[in-house]
Every structure is written in C-alpha cells, then in structure tokens.
Amino acid sequence: MATPLSDTPLSPFKTIAVVGLGTMGTGIAEVLAKAGREVVGIDISEAATAKAVATLEAATARAVERGRLTDQERTDVLARVRTSTDLSAAAEADLVIEVAPESYETKHQIFRALDEVVRPETILATGTNALSVTRLAADSARPERVLGLHFFNPAPAMKLVEVVSSVLTAPAAVAAVTDLAVELGKEPVAVGDRPGFVADGLLFGYLNQAAAMYEAKYASREDIDAAMRLGCGLPMGPLALLDLIGIDTARTVLDAMYAESRDRLHAPAPILKQLSEAGLTGRKSGRGFYTYEAPGGATVVPDALTPLSGGLDIPGRTVRSVGVAGSGTMASGIAEVFAKAGYEVVLAARSEEKAQAAKARIGKSLSRSVDKGRMTAEAAAQTLERITPAGSYDSFAEVDLAVEAVAEDLEIKQQLFATLDKVCKPGAVLATTTSSLPVIACARATSRPQDVIGMHFFNPAPAMKLVEVVRTVLTGDDVHSTVREVCVKIKKHAVECGDRAGFIVNALLFPYLNNAIKMVQEHYASLDDIDAAMKLGGGYPMGPFELLDVVGLDVSLAIEKVLHREFRDPGLAPAPLLEHLVAAGCLGRKTGRGFREYARR
C-alpha cells in the first residue's frame, strides 16, 4: 500500500530518472545535470542512450567554448549522468520524468512498470503535451503522486514549464515539482489537465487553421508565414513551425484536443493527415510544407511551389500622387509612409481643421525620427512639405491612388467610395485599408469595381512592414500590379490573399485570442499564466491579454463577430467574457481598464 503523501516529507529530488532519451528527454537530462541533480537516463534503445550521451558531451563542450561552463564543471555535469536500458535503474529516483512517445499504451506500460520499481514516495511526472494526465494517473497504483511536467523544446533554452495537476494529484506533489522548476531556472505555470494545456492548447489551434488556410489555396505558404511574422512579430510563421515541430506530432496533438473539445478548430486539417501518411513530416524527413536541403536540416530549398522571383507579368499604372482619406492614427501613418517614399500626398479629412491636426501629428512623428537619428532634419522637412492637408475629398481629383483609412464601418466606407468614384479621375486606383470588412462591398459602391483593391496596413504604419493586398473577384490585373509595385517603393512586404473576413493575419490571430479568453472564462488558468505561457513557450512578443488590451476589446469583439458571421463556425463565437467587458465599457488601455487595470495618464 502506498504511503499517504501528506505523511511523507517530500524529497528534494537529488536523483531524477528521465525515461525516454529523444531530443526532449536528452535536453531535460542536461538541464537537471547542470542544476546539480544526479540523473538516470533510461531508454529501451541502446542507440538512443549512446546518442544522448554524445549529445550531452557536445552540448557541454559548446558551453565551455562559450564560457558558460569551466572544464571542471563540464566534467562534473557529465559525471552526474548515467544511462540504462532497464527501467529498474529508476529504483532509487526521487522523481521520474517520462518523455516517451505520445501513445497511451506506451506511457501506460511505463507507469505500471514504474509502480513495481520505484519507492512509495517517488513522484511520477509525464512530459505529455497531448494525452490525459488524469487517465495516466488513474492507471497508476499511486495516482496522487502522478502529475504533468511539460517542458518545451529545446529544454535547455526554453524557460516555460507547465505543471499539470489532475483531480487526483496531491497539492504537496505539485508544490515540490513547482519548486524544482524554479530551482532549474524555469518559469512554471500551473494548469489543469486538458489536451494541449495552455501553450499548445492555444498554439495548435492556430497552426491547424493556418494549415487549413493553405490547403484551401487562400494564400501561399510563404505569404501565410510572412504575414504572421511581420504582422504579429512572431519568430516563425505557422507552416514553418509545423515543419519544425513535426507534422505527425501536430496531428497527434490536434487529434487529442478534438477528441475532448469537439471544437472544429481542433479537427486536424486533412492536409496534415495527407502529409503525415506520405512521410512528409517536416524538417526531420526533409520535406513537409517546405522542402529542406537534407533531413533534419533547417535550410529551405526551392521546389515546385516556390514563387518565381521575376517581375509581374502585367505592368501597373503610373502612380505619382496619393490621396489618403481620414484623420486618425492610421491615416496619418499611411500618409507619412507615402511621403517618406517620395510621393506627393493629399491628406483629406471631413474638415480642414482635422486634416491640419493629422499633418501636425505626422510632423511630431518625423521629429521623433530625427531625434532618434533615423532621418535628417532636412529629410523630415522635405517629407512634411510633400503632404497637403485638405478639408474636402474634391482635392483627390488628380491623385493616381486614393487610400481610405476612415472608421471601420461598412456604411461609412461605402459612402466614401461613392464619393471617390465621383471625384477621382478615370484610371485612379481606389484602395481600402479595412481589416475585416468585405472589399467587394466597397467596390460595388462605385461604377468601377475593377479599380478597387484592399491595402491593409498595420498599426503603426510607419513601423510595420506588412501590407495585405486583397483582390476581389472584380479587381483588374493591372490594379493588382500597381499596388504590388507601390508596396515595393514604400518598402513594405506585400502578401496576397482573397477577399474574405480577417484576410490572413486577423483570421488566424483573433480565434487564438478568443480561445485564450475562453480559458480564463472557464477558470482553467490565470491571465498572467496564459500570457507568460505564450511569451515563454510560443515566442510571442506579447501575451494574448496584453495584446487584447492594446488592440482594444471593442475592436477585438467587432472582428470576432465578423469572423463568426462569415464562417458560421460555433468555435468562432465571441467569448461571453469579452462581450461583457465591452458592455461594461472596459475596452483596454484606452479606457484604463480591460482585462487588467492601467494607471490613467
């Protein structure tokens, strides 16, 4: 009979066994040995144990070269690690961390075998990121001592560790393992037991949607990845990240998530199954969404799907002058971008006063650039001189390109496009910066829908490199070429997509944000833990709640509603908590309170 956990003082985990010596298990062993723990690495494969030792030797040698370890420290670290192919080697371990392949059958066999081997007070941790910790605990003779300890790859570098409790886990076991994570220099977050936990639970839904977007031929793999890197500041695009993780691994995680949630956002995109079954699992096989120089390599090589690097087949129209409609932050930012690139800009608003205020805002922005040494005072003055403020859209009579950046309201935009249709000369390109409304609805408000296209800039426009170029079914080829050429001249990276809600970035970003809100709403994890998990585990520059408060909860809710209305997917329905906060006037930083409270300036 197992000793009651509350009656036994927890060990400080002097000896820790790691079962499964793949990449993750070897990385965890390295972290533990460097932190002074005695490590027993166990794998049924002698080749795996030999490879783990060689990997540790190489990693510690690099650490010596970089001055992170002395020769003596390296010798001590390696001496603390011993390997075995027999689970009985875990007999004296205070903690066992299992990181075997993601299979219930495999993990169940390991846990049942460990029950026969380890001491009654030993804690058993599973490194699963997709399977039920509760189910594994229930199969064990000591369910109160079983929990999840989910490291992220590469374990030596990644700070996040998710500590996963089941309803059976004793609080003292959670506390002991949490303390260990802190001692290892990691940042633990406490989560409950559901597939994917926090980081992967949010990440894999987003990756799945990106795969489905590519499968639908809505955008190219390069444009999807570039859009999320440049539009959200992510270190990797979703399709490149799927190749890194392993497409077969992603499919396993999503299968487990869908089995529990029945949320269509988690139902693996068919392309993941097709690639997995063809053996095209990503970097490790040398081919997945992209093709790599060699299996296990990171260098992408051209293949049949790689875009040609030549110029556009159809020449664009000449653009010398640009009209920007609007007086807000986005309009003034876009006007600044065009003026910096040498275009003559007419900045028109509903009144001369508003237009002058927008130009003054640009002047302040340019002054900051001068102060930071990004441009000379002379260049700033010349840029500002190219901008002509106007209180009427009649001033757009001679512009070659008109870009609207007014309120995100379809009726307002349609009225503006009807006006532009009347005042702009024949052949002028008419562009909308909408982030969520149908471009075709703006085009149909004119008598020349072939001249209308979407140019979705990101805020702040002078700093953000991305522009989503949105063609409707009626947009002319020469208009498309014109906007692509303009994007090159204003030094923006253009990505192509069709005219559907959210385009690329918002269609992938906002369901992820909505799912994060649902986690808090369901009391699964705290705001702080979710934000920390996504920054530390996913490489996001901001956690989802930080980002929601910056974007504005009212703006976020509006985009969520548009996505839900267009795709009719129940999983895209805005989280009630978001609706309640907006109804209460808690809109984020701009009101001083959103998901968090802010000091008013």
UniProtKB/TrEMBL annotation:
GO biological process: fatty acid beta-oxidation
Molecular function GO labels: 3-hydroxybutyryl-CoA dehydrogenase activity; NAD+ binding
Keywords for the protein's UniProt record, in alphabetical order: Oxidoreductase
Domain 3-hydroxyacyl-CoA dehydrogenase C-terminal: 196-292, 502-598
Entry annotated with the keyword Oxidoreductase: yes
InterPro entries xref list: 3-OHacyl-CoA_DH_NAD-bd, 3HC_DH_C, 6-PGluconate_DH-like_C_sf, 6PGD_dom2, NAD(P)-bd_dom_sf
All copies of domain 3-hydroxyacyl-CoA dehydrogenase NAD binding, residue ranges: 15-193, 322-499
Pathway(s) served: Lipid metabolism; butanoate metabolism
A Pfam family this chain is assigned to: 3HCDH_N
Protein family (similarity comment): Belongs to the 3-hydroxyacyl-CoA dehydrogenase family.
Protein name per its UniProtKB record: 3-hydroxyacyl-CoA dehydrogenase family protein
Organism encoding this protein: Streptomyces luteolifulvus
